[in-house]
Structure formats: structure tokens, C-alpha cells
Write a structure and sequence with these properties.
- The protein is an all-alpha fold.
- Among the domains are: 82 residues; 101 residues, Serine Threonine Protein Phosphatase 5, Tetratricopeptide repeat; 100 residues, no CATH class.
- 72% of the residues lie in helices and 1% in strands.
- It has 46 helices and 2 strands.
- A two-stranded antiparallel ribbon has the order 1-2.
- A hairpin with a 2-residue loop joins strand 1 and strand 2.
- 39% of the residues are buried.
- Keywords: Repeat.
Length: 837
């Protein structure tokens, strides 16, 4: 027994027991470390809002197991709450940790930046510095991003200075963040300087610089950057190709885009969704829809962006039917359209002016809860305004809180299109009151409203605002200013504005040519048309139509034929509007056969074409042919518009068919539901006036639903002059002297009425009134075409260098006519040069 006790002595017992405890402690420590590592791995996997609940359960397990003081787990818990977006829990966790290292601070700054709370991120950064904790290379990218989020480049530069002092400037992640900060805030020079200094550039850094140039529309530097990247050891990725292909799309570089497509295939990225979608957009914008469709059909998977790009491509290239078909196919295969799809597709509905289809899409949006962003709202308003449903457009505008300058511009443009110029100006005043800043498109849309109201003063005020903001050099703004001045009767100011535009596009030239043609300056219009071609700017159908209108006003058949020849050579012979203008030119130049020949040779005819030929026969007194054409138009399925009936009623007036004219007027309003406009009432007054039914003409004026303008009263006054009705002439002239007091023609007409009636006292009173109001009589001009040159002169004008020759030609022509029995009592007055003047 003693031996046993000796063998297991207390000392030995104690020693043996201590070894066991120490061994147990080591085992427990290893188990704790393994368990903590396992929990840390689980926490690291909880990296999104969807797994926040699981992260909280792990946090509870940490507390239950007594690991709350474990530094590793505490940091992982903080990171989990940051990644899951639970900032409040992250903050509570943050203050339980040891804050001597940069990691907890970096995690909090990252969380605030991720949530968009950039000011809190920067506040924690400065607190970190205040606590004597130095940031590391993982801290600075988040701090720089916070500076960018606040658009505070100045603070970003201070942070950059700290980065340089700590030696992190050339770190790939820190450098990329700095380059992005400078680039996105317009400091492209600083971004490029830092980029060039970086010793190692990864693909992300190259893409940042590429994206900078693309966003600033600097295609040359963007392509140069891409070439430099290709010469480096860095291989471009899908983001790189998407950037460069977007440059090809915006600049219509289809050859380069096709070459890049080949490079994309070589790199194995042709099935990458962003690259494929950008290729699709590039082919669409370069008007290569066949290639775009082929690419679309080859794509194994098409997402919503792909469908949107293809629909947008069809709409941009004018294939509205194909866009509608693709939109229906998209819905049938189960792809749900979003606001971008609908905003891209709605212009196709606008183009076809199909109000019912627009309402169907609007109903789809309401049923499926499609969010009404500013672009979609603008597209909806545009379609309702262009389909003449102004009240629905007003409702959409007033119901939504998301109203920006784009939506206001759409409303202004739509109101102007519908002739509601006062409402357009009211919207413009409202947006100024709401502290919105009008852009160039807004101002260019508002100027036509000033032109429609002949509000020259307001137009000048807008012009002044445009000059102050430096927007006058833009073509679309300059064109709008030119058009406004021309329509307000200040062709001189229109010409000055036109001359100051440095780079003129086709629209700008068209505006000036049309202004001259419509303001009694057809010679200037034709001259500008020549200059347009010499300057290298391409003609379009509007240029052709405006020049042909000038030839019609000048009765210059020779110039008209030259333009017709140019149309055939320049592939404009199939344009409906240019061909309609050609019909009008030949008709007004007296060549009705050529006008009919052009009409018969047209491949497709719209209402404008039919209106032109109906008007041509009507103005030449061929009422029967005019009505025959009208019925042919109806048989061909073309619905008449207000211009059609204007031509028919005018033709009835020229032929003296009062009953027919009145019948077609009623047919227009009752059968076709077309409301009579000012021109229709003026035509009816002319119809009754020519037939001597002046009382009916006066009753027509009194029955008008709106206030008659000077044109209506002037028509009545002209009829009174023909039929010698002094009483009604006095009534008409009183209105005319109020509406247009500086028009000398009305004074002369009234004077002639009184002179025909032998009322010479009244004649003297009218002459005295003209002197009192300083009304100058505008001389009447005539023109004659000699050797394909048009010469203009007025009565008793001896200033023209060939006036004596022209007088001799006219006199000889008259003598020949008198020999054949024409104009026996007509003699030319003596030429001023033969009178010694």
C-alpha cells in the first residue's frame, strides 16, 4: 500500500493533473479558434440585404458562444452589416470595437458611401484622422468616391495631396478612383496627367479614361486611347468594346464599327450582352438595319436591352410598321417592356398619328404599373399633342410631380404645333417662375410661338437671352431666330442673324430660303439656293420645295425646270412633297400640262399631291377637271383635308359656281367634320363677292365663330370695288384701317370705290388720311423673262439698264397682237427715256 502511495505521491498527482488541465486548455483554444473561423467564413458569405437575417442569427450565435470580444468576429460582423445595408447596426457594432486600426473606419466609410450618404462618409474620414488613425490604400477609394458623389473636386484634391504624401498615388485602385473623380467632374486634363504617370494600368483604368472621352463626345481622343490600349499589354474587355462601339454609333463610323465587330469575334466576346447590344445600336444608327437584324437573329439570348435597341433602331430609321411588329412579338415571347421600351416605341405611334394605338399603350402602362419617368411622360405628351388631343396632354402634364425642362419643352412645342401660341408662352413663363433653366431646345421651341403671335418684342427678348447664354451659334437656335424675325416682318434682322451663324446646316439654309420665298423676295431665295449648293451643304426635299415655291412666285419657269432636272439627277424625284411643290410651280407658271405630267408620273400620291393638282386646275378655271380629280382622290382612299376643300371652294369661285361652292363648304363641316378656318370663310366671301352677292358675303362674315382678320375684310372690300357697293366698302374699310392701318392697298381700293361713284370729296379725305398716317403707296411690280433671265420693274421705271430694250420688245409684241385683232384700244405709255426724263 505504501508502495502504491509512494508511486502516486501528492506531488506526482498534482503534476499529472496540471498537465491534463493544460492539455485541455490547448484543446479548448484550438476549438474556439476553429469555431470563430467558421463563423467568420459564414459572416463573409452574408454580403447582401437578402441575407441580413442569416447574418443576425450568426451574430446571436457569437454572443451565445461568448465570442463577443473576438476582434476577428467583431470586424466580420461590422463588414456584414455594412454589406447588408444595415448602417444603424453597423454603427452600434463599430463603437464596440477597438478603433486603433484603419479597418473598422474603412468599413464604416465604405458603408456610408454605398448608401449614398457621402457627407457622413467624409465626416468619419476626418474623425478617423482626428483619432490619430492613418488611412490605408483601401480607405482612399471610398473617400474619393464620396468626394465625387458631392461633386466636390476641391476636397478631392486635398485628399489627393494626402494620398501623395502617404505614397498611395500610384496604387491601381486609388489611382483609378482619382482618375474617375477628375474625369466625371470635367477635370479631363488632371485625369489624363495622372493616367499618364501611372506605372501600371489595368483594364479598368483604361476603360475609365475611354469612358471620359466618350461622355464628353471627344471621339478623336477616345479612338486614340483605344489604339494606345491595343499597343499595350492590356487586353480589352467587354466594357472597352462597348465604349468604342458607342463612338462609332454616334459618329456613324460604320467601317470602323464593322472592323471592331471582327475584333470582338476574335476576342470571343460576340455573345457578351453589353457588346452585342452596342453593336446592334451601332448598326441601327449607321442605317445598316439589315446587319442589325442579322445580328439580332443570331443572338442566342436576347434581354430587354436588346429588344429596346432593335425597336429604337426601327423607329430611328423610319420603319414604324416593323417597330410595331417587333413590339408585339416582344410581348408575345414574354418579355415585359419597361419605360425605355415604351419611350422608344411611342414615336412610331406619333409618326402615324394613330391616337387609338397611343391610348392602348397608355392603358397598358396604367394596368401594368409602368413608372412614368420624365422621358416616358414627355413621349406620351408628345403623342397626344401631335394627335390633337390637347386636353389629355394637359392632364398628364399636371398629374405627375416629375416635371423637368424636357417635359416643359414638349408642352411648348406641342402647343405651338396646335396653334396655341399663348398657351406655349404661358408654359414658358411658368417654367421660369419654377426656377427651371431653359436650354437651347426650349428656346428654339418657344420662338415659333412668338412668330405665330407676331410678338416681335418678346422674340427680341428671347434673342437677347440666347445671346447672353452663348446659344446663338447653334444651328437649330439660329434657324428659329431667323424664322421668327421673318414671320414678324423683319427680313432684314432675319438675314443678319443668318449671316452670324458660323456653321450652317441644311435646316438653317432651308429656314432662310423659305423666309425669303414667303416674304416677297423670291430672287433672294433662288440666290440662297445656289449658295447652299456651292457651300457644300446637301440639299433635301425642304430646300427643293422652298426653291420651287420661289420660282412659282417669280413665275420663273426656266429656273423651275432647272430644279426639276436637278431633282431627277439627285434622286429627289420620288419625294412626295418636292413633287407636289413641282406641280404647284408648273401650274403657277402657266404650264398646266407639265403639272399634270408630273402628277401622273408620281409613284405614290398623298393628300398634298392631290391638293396641288386640284388647286392647279381650279386656279386655271377648269372646275370640271378639278372636281373629277377630287372624286378620284376619294376613290383612291385618300381622305380630304381642309386644304382640299379650300382648293375646291376657290375653284368654284373662279368658275362662278356659287351653289357648288356653298355645298362643298357644308360637306366639309357636316360630312367630314372638318372645322372651317379663317381661309375657308375668306374663300366663301370671295365666292359670293365674285358673283355680286355682297349681302350674302357680309352675312357670312357676321356668322363666323371667330373675329375676321384683315384678309376676310380685304376680300369683301375688293368685291365692293368690282360691284361698286360704297356702303359695304365703308364698313369693310373701317375694320381694315383698325386691323392693318399701314397697308396702302386698302386705302387705294376704298379711294377707287369712291372715285367710281363720283364721290371726289371722299377720295380727297382718304388721300389726306394716308398722308396723316404716313402710309406710303407700294408700287406694283411686273417682270419679264428674256433669254432665261427674269427682269423686274415697276410702272414708269427707267432705272433698269435694259428698260428701253424691254419697252421695245413689249411694244412690238403688242403691235403684233393688234394686227391679229387683239387689244385694239391698248397702247403702251411713252418710255421715260423717250420723254427726256
Amino acid at each position: 500500500m505504501s508502495k502504491r502511495l509512494t508511486r502516486i505521491s501528492p506531488a506526482n498527482f498534482i503534476h499529472t493533473n496540471c498537465n491534463h488541465i493544460e492539455h485541455s486548455r490547448v484543446l479548448y483554444s484550438n476549438t474556439e479558434h476553429a469555431w470563430a473561423s467558421q463563423l467568420a467564413s459564414i459572416l463573409q458569405a452574408c454580403n447582401g440585404p437578402s441575407v441580413l437575417q442569416q447574418g443576425r442569427q450568426v451574430h446571436a450565435q457569437v454572443i451565445v458562444c461568448g465570442y463577443s470580444n473576438n476582434a476577428l468576429l467583431g470586424t466580420k460582423l461590422l463588414g456584414m452589416y455594412v454589406l447588408c445595408g444595415s448602417i444603424v447596426a453597423a454603427k452600434n457594432m463599430f463603437y464596440k470595437l477597438e478603433l486603433g486600426s484603419s479597418l473598422p473606419w474603412t468599413l464604416m466609410i465604405r458603408g456610408f458611401t454605398k448608401m449614398g450618404w457621402f457627407d457622413f462618409a467624409l465626416l468619419f474620414y476626418f474623425k478617423m484622422l482626428g483619432c490619430g488613425v492613418f488611412p490605408d490604400k483601401y480607405t482612399f477609394p471610398c473617400v474619393i468616391k464620396a468626394c465625387g458623389g458631392l461633386n466636390n473636386v476641391r476636397l478631392g484634391k486635398l485628399v489627393h495631396r494626402t494620398i501623395r504624401l502617404m505614397g498611395f498615388e500610384f496604387d491601381v485602385f486609388v489611382g483609378s478612383s482619382l482618375i474617375k473623380l477628375y474625369a466625371e467632374n470635367g477635370c479631363i486634363g488632371e485625369a489624363r496627367y495622372l493616367f499618364d504617370k501611372m506605372p501600371h494600368r489595368d483594364c479598368v483604368m483604361w476603360n475609365v479614361m475611354l469612358n471620359v472621352y466618350v461622355k464628353n463626345a471627344d471621339s478623336i481622343n477616345a479612338l486614340q486611347m483605344f489604339l494606345e490600349m491595343r499597343n499595350s499589354e492590356i487586353r480589352p474587355n467587354s466594357v472597352t468594346f462597348a465604349c468604342v462601339l458607342s463612338v462609332c454609333a454616334s459618329e456613324a463610323m460604320v467601317v470602323l464599327g464593322t472592323q471592331l465587330h471582327g475584333l470582338v469575334v476574335r476576342c470571343g466576346l460576340e455573345l457578351d450582352s453589353p457588346v452585342a447590344n452596342t453593336l446592334l445600336a451601332m448598326y441601327s444608327k449607321c442605317q445598316k438595319l439589315f446587319d442589325a437584324c442579322a445580328l439580332f437573329d443570331m443572338m442566342p439570348q436576347t434581354d430587354l436591352v436588346t429588344w429596346n435597341g432593335m425597336i429604337s433602331g426601327f423607329v430611328q430609321n423610319g420603319f414604324m410598321g416593323e417597330a410595331s411588329h417587333l413590339f408585339r412579338e416582344m410581348i408575345s415571347v414574354g418579355v415585359k417592356p419597361d419605360s425605355i421600351t415604351l419611350a422608344s416605341f411611342l414615336p412610331s405611334v406619333t409618326e402615324s398619328a394613330c391616337l387609338n394605338q397611343g391610348k392602348e399603350i397608355h392603358g397598358y402602362m396604367v394596368r401594368h404599373g409602368v413608372p412614368l419617368d420624365v422621358f416616358l411622360k414627355s413621349a406620351l405628351i408628345d403623342i397626344y399633342l401631335k394627335c390633337r388631343n390637347v386636353e389629355m396632354a394637359r392632364k398628364i402634364f399636371s398629374q405627375s410631380n416629375t416635371t423637368d425642362i424636357v417635359v416643359c419643352t414638349t408642352m411648348i412645342s406641342g402647343f405651338t404645333l396646335n396653334g396655341m401660341n399663348s398657351d406655349a408662352l404661358a408654359i414658358f413663363r411658368w417654367l421660369l417662375k419654377e426656377k427651371m433653366r431653359p436650354n437651347s431646345v426650349t428656346l428654339a421651341s418657344t420662338l415659333p410661338a412668338c412668330a405665330g403671335l407676331a410678338a416681335l418684342k418678346l422674340g427680341k427678348e428671347l434673342h437677347c437671352n440666347i445671346l447672353k447664354n452663348g446659344l446663338d451659334g447653334r444651328c437649330h437656335v439660329g434657324s428659329a431666330i431667323t424664322d421668327m424675325y421673318a414671320k414678324c416682318g423683319r427680313l432684314d434682322l432675319a438675314h443678319q442673324t443668318f449671316e452670324r451663324i458660323s456653321e450652317r446646316d441644311t435646316v438653317c439654309w432651308n429656314s432662310m430660303i423659305t423666309s425669303c420665298a414667303q416674304n416677297g423676295k423670291p430672287e433672294d431665295a433662288i440666290d440662297l439656293f445656289r449658295q447652299l449648293g456651292k457651300g457644300g451643304t446637301k440639299y433635301d426635299c425642304v430646300s427643293i420645295s422652298a426653291a420651287l415655291s420661289a420660282c412659282a412666285n417669280l413665275s420663273s419657269l426656266h429656273h423651275g425646270k432647272e430644279i426639276h432636272s436637278f431633282m431627277i439627277k439627285g434622286a429627289f424625284s420620288s419625294d412626295l412633297f418636292a413633287e407636289s411643290a413641282l406641280i404647284d410651280m408648273y401650274a403657277k407658271c402657266g404650264n398646266l400640262d407639265s403639272a399634270r405630267s408630273v402628277f401622273d408620273m408620281m409613284q405614290g400620291k398623298n393628300e398634298v399631291s392631290w391638293n396641288s393638282i386640284i388647286s392647279a386646275y381650279g386656279n386655271h378655271g377648269h372646275l370640271k377637271d378639278s372636281l373629277t380629280l377630287f372624286h378620284e382622290m376619294l376613290e383612291n382612299g385618300i381622305q380630304p383635308d381642309h386644304v382640299t376643300f379650300l382648293a375646291i371652294i376657290s375653284a368654284c369661285g373662279h368658275a362662278g359656281q356659287v351653289d357648288n361652292g356653298a355645298r362643298y363648304f357644308r360637306c366639309m363641316t357636316e360630312q367630314y367634320g372638318i372645322p372651317a378656318q379663317m381661309e375657308h370663310y375668306a374663300c366663301m366671301v370671295d365666292l359670293f363677292g365674285r358673283a355680286g352677292q355682297l349681302n350674302e358675303a357680309f352675312e357670312t362674315i357676321k356668322s363666323m365663330p371667330f373675329t375676321p382678320d384683315a384678309g376676310v375684310w380685304g376680300t369683301l372690300l375688293g368685291a365692293c370695288r368690282v360691284h361698286g357697293n360704297v356702303e359695304l366698302a365703308e364698313v369693310a374699310s373701317r375694320h381694315l384701317f383698325d386691323l392693318d392701318p399701314q397697308n396702302s392697298g386698302y386705302y387705294v381700293l376704298l379711294s377707287n370705290v369712291h372715285a367710281d361713284a363720283g364721290q371726289w370729296g371722299s377720295v380727297l379725305k382718304i388721300r389726306s388720311l394716308m398722308k396723316e398716317r404716313q402710309v406710303q403707296k407700294v408700287p406694283g411690280y411686273s417682270w419679264i423673262n428674256i433669254n432665261n433671265n427674269t427682269h423686274i420693274f415697276c410702272a414708269a421705271d427707267g432705272s433698269h439698264p435694259q428698260s428701253a430694250e424691254i419697252y421695245s420688245i413689249l411694244n412690238n409684241l403688242l403691235l403684233e397682237l393688234r394686227k391679229e385683232g387683239y387689244f385694239p384700244q391698248l397702247y403702251l405709255p411713252m418710255h421715260p427715256q423717250t420723254m427726256g426724263l
